[in-house]
Amino acid sequence: MIKANPFLGNDEDRTEIWDMLVAKDIRAYTQADWSMVENDFLEDEFFAVNAGFDNDPGKWNLAFSRFENYRDSWLEAARASLKTEYAEPLEDAVHKLTTLEQIEVKEGKAIARKQFNGTIQVVGKEPEVLNWQTLYYLKKTPAGWKIVGFTGYLPYTP
To answer: Residues 48-52: contacts with CB within 8 Å, 24+ apart?
Structure first.
């Protein structure tokens, strides 16, 4: 089941951010189609931190200091998912376990908290478990909201 945007009709900025980080991102990933999301980033400002599911920031690392490295890693993971036989439609399954309810917008910047909590059934294998959260950092530009970075694989908290 594809989720509806909870901000639609109430908040233009949050609607745009939710559509980018949930609807478009999930569709692009499940189709391994980078062209769908490539314009959602400010490449020159982008960087990403990997929290490694650890509460201790001292153990986090700068996973992607270059945008190209992130793009290549995203494509590798997305293509691997295409080779996996899921027992349910992947796009629906990812929507089912994804939540993005908290988006703070202030003076042309935003932080969005995207959470993953659940499993995806794989044919003949153990289910894939998604249980983490990501904080996305965004900037409003004349062309709309753009991702400038994120801290990913943070431990899941309700």
So the answer is: 48/149, 48/150, 48/151, 48/152, 49/149, 49/150, 49/151, 49/152, 50/152, 50/153, 51/151, 51/152, 51/153, 51/154, 51/155, 52/153
Residue 69 tokens read as 């490295």
Alpha-carbon distance of 66 to 18, in angstroms, equals 24
- Determine the distance from the C-alpha atom of residue 10 to the mean position of all C-alpha atoms in its chain, rounded to a whole number: 22
Tokens standing for 59? 């153990």
Tell me, yes or no, if the pTM score tops 0.90: yes
Tell me the pLDDT tens digit for each residue of 61-94: 999 999 999 999 999 999 999 999 999 999 999 9
Distance CA 143, CA 11 (A): 18
> By C-alpha distance, which of 13, 6, 47, 40 is closest to 24?
40
d(CA 45, CA 22): 22
Sign of CA dihedral 144, 95, 27, 149: positive
Do 138 and 150 touch, CB atoms closer than 8 A? no
